[in-house]
Write a structure and sequence with these properties.
Layout lengths: L3 E5 L7 H9 L4 E4 L8 E5 L2 E5 L12 E4 L4 E2 L1 H13 L8 E4 L3 E2 L2 H11 L14 H9 L12 H21 L8 H11 L7 E2 L1 H10 L4 E4 L24 H5 L10 E7 L2 E3 L12 H10 L11 E3 L1 E2 H11 L3 E5 L9 E10 L2 E3 L6 H6 L1 E8 L16 H14 L2 E6 L7 E3 L4 H7 L7
Parallel strand pairs: 1-10, 1-11, 2-5, 2-10, 5-7, 6-8, 7-9, 11-15, 14-16, 15-19
Antiparallel strand pairs: 3-4, 12-13, 16-17, 16-18, 19-20
The structure holds guanosine-5'-diphosphate, 6-O-phosphoryl inosine monophosphate (IMO) and magnesium ion (MG).
The site of magnesium ion has 6 residues, from loops.
Length: 441
């Protein structure tokens, strides 16, 4: 029995949804540990496409159980809509989607506060997804949040919401907002709305521990990516949760000793949405070409993703920080038409190569990428499922990445669809998967 963490190795949108859906076949339970409906995970199965935000990507396999952990912030409206959309598409979540009673809830005032903060002249504009994620995590850390389990005690819930609304009203008023909040109306509406949540609530930590003890395997699904992690990312241009592998333990209440391995997901190039450092960004035609071929537009906000070349310093950092056992490279096919492909091997700051990533935003701005240019393959790789069938230059590209990082590339994705996937034999990941349940669906 193996328990594996899947973590984004860059700035999110690496294709984690596709990877988790693919790997889920080997596991019994898929558990999400961080983020909220800021995430957008697009999964294609045959001609059908699904966009998941809160629901773990394992849900598309009918025999899997999906768990939303305490580290996730849950907007009940978003969750209900997502479940309804899934049901309309014939995916039943009944009896196999659970939510931690310790997960914090997002309320409409979180979005209002976020809008004020994003437009405030005293704060850096982060370019958030405007889903109220940051303010909900602020309330959690500030010890004034409201948790999913609180909906089961009506009087307590009303009291907690009354306090929260009073505080938010005072803040909004101080910032000059004319919005008037109504605690009683919001409590009544929330209690009615959250009825659907009640049967899903569990003590996720106790549940997962018991399941693992009984021999069931768990795939831990991270949202966002390493460079968006609140502690380890390009702060303050980050999200507000622990997106790195450590977040799986705190975000689900699972002991580190239960984790068998960690895989990182990276595109064959780099993208980022929102503001913040991005040394290998290409603002000109090269970036536009990647954006068009890779369809790099956000699945949550529809925003254009910023595009650029693969950044090995970021992946090196990510490999060390997450303790990656192996790397999964997605969207290789997007590079198919290029004559040559620059890869950033190091950063230069003040004329010297530096080994550590910058910490302060202004230091990030001074980081100049040092590129090695590799030949392109100029042949279609889309849909290839066997490593040996990749053009030699594409294999050289992957092997260059692997050698530079000292890390195996275990899976290569050659298209958005589930089956457009190469699984390399003899890898640590393959061995790890062999220790988990055999694929059933
Ligand atoms: P996530 O947030 O990490 O799950 O990634 P997103 O779903 O936000 O973005 C990845 C996008 O790339 C989605 O539209 C996927 O359908 C698509 N995708 C995933 N893998 C591949 C691939 O190998 N090739 C191509 N062309 N598209 C892919
Ligand atoms: P998935 O799981 C890419 C970015 C936002 C913004 C910053 C803070 O699909 O990879 P937030 O709304 O979280 O407070 O915004 O983080 N961001 C993401 N970028 N993929 C995501 O999730 C993201 N979730 C948040 O664009 O820059
Ligand atoms: Mg995404």
């Amino acid at each position: 029995m193996s328990n594996l963490i899947v973590v984004g190795a860059q700035w999110g949108d690496e294709g984690k949804g596709k990877v988790v859906d693919f790997l889920a076949g080997h596991f019994d339970i898929v558990a999400r540990y961080n983020g909220g409906n800021n995430a957008g995970h697009t999964i294609a199965i045959g001609s059908r496409q699904f966009v998941l935000q809160l629901v773990p990507s394992g849900i598309l396999r009918p025999d899997k159980v999906a768990v939303i952990g305490n580290g996730v912030v849950v907007d009940p409206v978003a969750l209900r809509n997502e479940i309804e959309t899934l049901e309309q598409k014939g995916i039943s979540t009944a009896g196999r989607l659970f939510v931690s009673n310790r997960a914090h809830l997002i309320f409409p005032y979180h979005r209002l506060v976020e809008t004020e903060l994003e437009n405030s002249p005293w704060r850096s504009k982060i370019g958030t997804t405007a889903r109220g994620i940051g303010p909900a995590y602020e309330d959690k850390i500030g010890r004034r949040g409201i948790r999913a389990g609180d909906i089961t005690e009506e009087a307590e819930f009303r009291c907690l919401l009354e306090m929260a609304v009073q505080e938010k009203q005072a803040l909004l008023r101080a910032w000059g907002s004319k919005v008037l909040l109504d605690a009683a109306a919001l409590a009544a509406e929330s209690l009615r709305l959250c009825e659907f949540l009640k049967p899903m609530l569990i003590d996720a930590s106790a549940y997962l521990q018991a399941e693992m003890k009984a021999g069931r395997s768990v795939l831990f699904e991270g949202a966002q990516g390493t460079m968006l992690d609140v502690d380890h990312g390009t702060y303050p241009y980050v999200t507000s949760s622990s997106a790195t592998a450590g977040g799986a333990c705190t975000g689900l209440g699972v002991p580190p000793t239960r984790i068998s391995g960690v895989v990182g997901v990276s595109k064959a190039y780099t993208t980022r949405v929102g503001a913040g450092p991005f040394p290998t960004e290409e603002n000109g035609a090269a970036g536009d070409r990647i954006r068009e071929r890779g369809r790099e537009f956000g699945s949550v906000t529809g925003r254009s993703r910023r595009c650029g070349w693969l950044d090995l310093p970021v992946l090196r950092y990510s490999a060390a920080l997450n303790g990656l056992d192996s790397l999964i490279i997605t969207k290789l096919d997007v590079l198919d038409e290029l004559d040559e492909i620059p890869v950033c091997t190091d950063y230069e700051c003040d004329g010297a190569v530096r080994k550590e990533l910058p910490v302060r935003s202004s230091a990030w701005e001074q980081a100049r990428p040092v590129y090695r240019t590799l030949p392109g393959w100029r042949q279609p790789t889309a849909g290839i499922t066997r490593y040996e069938e990749l053009p030699p230059a594409a294999r050289d590209y992957l092997e260059f990445i692997s050698n530079q990082l000292g890390l195996e590339v275990s899976i290569v994705s050659t298209g958005p669809e589930r089956t457009q996937t190469i699984v390399r034999g003899g890898t640590r990941l393959e061995k790890l998967l062999a220790g988990s349940s055999p694929p059933r669906t």
